[in-house]
Specification:
The chain is of the alpha/beta class and 306 residues long. The protein is built from 15 helices and five strands. It is globular.
């Protein structure tokens, strides 16, 4: 038990390339739901993952256990000894389902628990390497799709304000390729993808590598499947696959990346922000409207304020 949760994850990641497709599905599930899986029977896992009990046994042996019972005992011990709040979350959610308390308080507690785990699940050296990749790019291309597209939009806005030419790629299909073909070797790629390996995400990482761009992948459970396609993988759990997922954890990691880049180039960042402020003043855009208490807002002033 000395290796702990991070060691168990590393064990699965190291053996992932040699696993079969069905075994990889088991590994992906355990990476995202080890606490839930610890108390499921082999029959329950077979039903959830659509694999055979024989496949479960072969998977357990492939990752270093004598069989599935030994793997489950190991997961149960991980669950009991885990000091971060995430291991208690699943049990807590069941307790809260029939208990008292507002939805707001329950959700906030859930987010805090995942944020606490993220602080321990991302290696500081990997984070620093990701920052260096972003700093080294002449331009930053940021990919995210679906509900996660807001991450790309936020990165584009904030990196541009720091004076870094950044392009968000949130499209799919041909429209994505139109932006992807602009990639050059001196650019950097920041890609976000969660839960499912989508064709667009693979295309972005593969093309970045083919062109010679360095890339950073922000994910939850896709690290084992895609770690050989990205230069750095920053993986943080967003919750069990079967539950509602928020973007609080990846948004926090993204904010940390942006601030780390700004801290590494403070003069350039502040100069870019000052230029932006002077432009706003010069062209009278986005200037705060000063109002006295009780003064009505005209339609023109309201438009300027928004």
């Amino acid at each position: 038990m000395e290796e702990g949760l991070n060691g168990f994850r590393q064990r699965l990641e190291d053996r992932f390339p040699s696993l079969t497709k069905s075994q990889r599905r088991i590994a992906d599930y355990l990476l995202a739901n080890y606490d839930e899986a610890a108390f499921l029977s082999a029959a329950d896992l077979v039903e959830r993952l659509h694999v055979s009990e024989a496949t479960l046994g072969r998977f357990a042996r492939a990752v270093g256990f004598t069989g599935f019972p030994a793997l489950r005992r190991y997961l149960q011990e991980l669950f009991r000894q885990k000091t971060t709040p995430a291991s208690r979350l699943q049990r807590k959610l069941h307790e809260l389902a029939d208990g008292e308390g507002s939805t707001l308080s329950k959700v906030l507690e859930m987010e805090v628990q995942y944020l606490n785990e993220a602080a321990h699940s991302i290696d500081a050296a990997d984070f620093d390497r990701a920052v260096q990749i972003l700093l080294g790019g002449e331009r930053i291309f940021v990919f995210a799709s679906g509900p996660s597209a807001v991450l790309a939009d936020l990165a584009e806005l904030r990196f541009r304000r720091l004076g870094i030419l950044t392009l968000a790629m949130t499209e799919s299909g041909r429209h994505l390729l139109e932006k992807l073909q602009l990639l050059e070797p001196r650019d950097a790629v920041l890609a976000a993808g969660f839960q499912y390996v989508r064709h667009e995400l693979v295309a972005v990482l593969d093309h970045a590598r083919a062109v010679g761009c360095r890339s950073v992948l922000l994910t939850d459970t896709l690290g084992p499947a895609l770690r050989h396609k990205a230069d750095v993988v920053l993986a943080a759990r967003r919750g069990p696959v079967s539950t509602f997922h928020s973007l609080t954890v990846p948004m926090s990691i993204l904010n940390a990346l942006i601030l780390a880049v700004a801290m590494a180039r403070p003069q350039e960042s502040l100069a870019a922000l000052n230029r932006l402020e002077r432009l706003r003043e010069t062209y009278n855009m986005d200037i705060p409207v000063k109002l006295t208490w009780g003064e009505p807002v005209s339609e023109e002033a309201s438009q300027r304020k928004t």
